[in-house]
Write a structure and sequence with these properties.
Blueprint lengths: L1 H6 L9 H10 L14 H10 L11 H13 L39 H26 L1
Length: 140
C-alpha cells in the first residue's frame, strides 16, 4: 500500500493472474523513485525492504516497521519529497542473481529485543508446563 500511495501505481501490473503471481514470486519490485523521484532515498529503502522476496530480509513485525516509519517521519523534512508521481517504463524481467540486495539493519548494534525474549520464555514455560499435564492425563 505504501508503494501505491507514493507512486500512484502497483509494483507489478499485468492482466494475466498467473503472470502476476509469478512476478510476485520472482521479479524484484521496481524502485519507487523510478515512478516518483521525489521519494527520499531512506523511504525508498524502507519500501524495498518491506517488498523483499526473502522473508528474513523484511521487518520482523509490523511494530518494528512502525518504529522505523516513526523515526523516518520524525527526521527533518527534505525538499525532495513530492506528491506527484511520474510515469516511467519498468522492466518486468526477474532480477539477476548478481544484483545486490538492499538491507537495512534491524536494530542498532548490540540491541536486544527484550519483548521478544520475554515472549519466547513465556511460550517455553507454557509449553513445558503443559507436557507433564498431558502425560498425567494420558497415563490415567
Amino acid at each position: 500500500m505504501l508503494f501505491e500511495m507514493l507512486t500512484a501505481r502497483l509494483p507489478f501490473d499485468t492482466d494475466d493472474p498467473a503472470r502476476l503471481a509469478e512476478m510476485h514470486l520472482t521479479t524484484t519490485p521496481p524502485s519507487p523513485r523510478s515512478f516518483n523521484p521525489g521519494i527520499p532515498t531512506a523511504l525508498e529503502q524502507i519500501i524495498l525492504k518491506v517488498l523483499s522476496k526473502e522473508p528474513s530480509a523484511r521487518y520482523r513485525t509490523a511494530d518494528q516497521l512502525g518504529h522505523v516509519l516513526a523515526t523516518f517521519s520524525a527526521s527533518p523534512p527534505t525538499p525532495e519529497l513530492q506528491a506527484t508521481p511520474v510515469a516511467h517504463e519498468v522492466s518486468l524481467e526477474p532480477a539477476s542473481p548478481e544484483s545486490e540486495t538492499m538491507r537495512m539493519p534491524l536494530s542498532p548494534a548490540g540491541a536486544i529485543d527484550w519483548t521478544a525474549v520475554a515472549l519466547g520464555l513465556l511460550a517455553f514455560v507454557a509449553v513445558g508446563g503443559l507436557i507433564p499435564l498431558w502425560l498425567f492425563i494420558a497415563l490415567r
